[in-house]
């Protein structure tokens, strides 16, 4: 084999990294789509369920217990998916009073520490939600007769998505030149 030739099936490190980066962009695209679309659909569904409840109760004098339960269920989904959406956009409330007073050379390391602590907390929340899903598998909701596991699934998906967005932020901060 000549000096410039490669072995068959050889993939360079840079080619492998480009493939992984492409896969991560595709994963992130679908994650964004699911999170944003899911949050909007859950919110619209919650509003419709509340509207049905109001009309049924006041116009027809017939309360619908499933509408109230559905609205609570969809509210949980909307909150956790929207929280992930806010994490993606960097829209969570932050108190920057101390950070802004620090020298620029200290701000980047402090941001990394804060994002790492938040990521650890999100990992703990994700793990706790998986535990709750396992323990609530046999329980069903009263009116809808839906397994409570789906209730906790919102927390698992939301915390996992937030974790992904925070890890992406950590990687981006590490790649920045000083």
Question: What overall form do the CA principal axes indicate?
Answer: extended
Oligomeric state of the chains present here: single chain
Gap between N and C termini = 43 Å
Mean residue pLDDT: 88
Q: Give a count of the beta strands, DSSP E runs of length 2 or more.
A: 0
Rg on CA atoms, Å = 23 Å
What is the count of helical runs? 5
Sequence of secondary-structure elements: HHHHH
Low-confidence spans: none
Largest sheet: none
Question: What is the helix fraction of residues, given as a range?
Answer: over 70%
Structural class: mainly alpha
Number of domains: 1
Which band does the percent of strand residues land in? under 5%
Subcellular location: Cell inner membrane
Family: Belongs to the TRAP transporter small permease family.
Pfam families: DctQ (PF04290)
Main location: membrane
Write the layout of secondary structure elements.
Blueprint: H1 13-58, H2 65-89, H3 97-101, H4 104-135, H5 149-175
Organism: Vecturithrix granuli
GO biological process, one term: C4-dicarboxylate transport
Family: Belongs to the TRAP transporter small permease family.
Describe the overall structure:
The structure is a single chain. With 178 residues, this protein is an all-alpha fold. It has one domain. It is built from five helices and no strands. It has helices spanning 13-58, 65-89, 97-101, 104-135, 149-175. The radius of gyration is 23 Å and the shape is extended. The chain starts with 12 loop residues before the first helix and ends with a helix. The relative contact order is 0.11. The mean pLDDT is 88.
